[in-house]
Amino acid sequence: MATIFPEDHETLAGQPFSLQEYYASCHANGSLTLLFMPISRHSQNILHSPQGSASISIWSEHPAASRARVSLMGKVTVFGDLGNTPERETIQSCYIEKHPDAKWWIPGPDEPHIAYWARFDVHSVYFVGGFGGLHYIGYIPTDLYAAAGSSTVSLAGKLQVQHDGMLYM
Predict the structure, then answer these.
(1) What's the CA gap between 160 and 35, in Å, rounded?
(2) Is 143 helix (H, G, I), strand (E, B) or coil?
(3) Is the pLDDT of residue 92 over 80?
(4) Which of 65, 110, 122, 163 has its CA 20 to 30 A from that of 38?
(5) How far apart are CA 11 and CA 22, in angstroms?
(6) How many CA atoms lie within 13 A of 53 on its CB side?
(7) For the residues 47-56, what does the mean pLDDT come to?
(8) Residue 102 DSSP symbol
């Protein structure tokens, strides 16, 4: 995940910050579920961002220039009231299924740090199909991304999608 330090940060105002973060694909429209902990630097940056902006990069287990990868840009919505978190039980079980070790950190009365559920809503998708002129590199329409749903095809596999007369490979 990548975020930007807030303009009022003492030494790194406006600078990018990037670290690996857990996410889970728990929504039919391609939005991602995040475990949002205000103690984390990413969370602090998002809370201070007027747009709640972040970017998440997804790639194969062993990244290489020849393998496909995608960058998702979007807005993070934090659900500060656990009782009013949409589909809370569903996203919690989905998240724990993807990240069993996170069970100790989930929002609730026994968490070691304050935690909330958050949703990352994608507004832009940039896909790199591989290296060289053989693979599609460019933006994927967000309506196509949202309609794709979950897939058993690995990201490292070939992507071939036809949408509105355009062929994406």
Answers:
(1) 32
(2) helix
(3) yes
(4) 122
(5) 27
(6) 13
(7) 84
(8) G
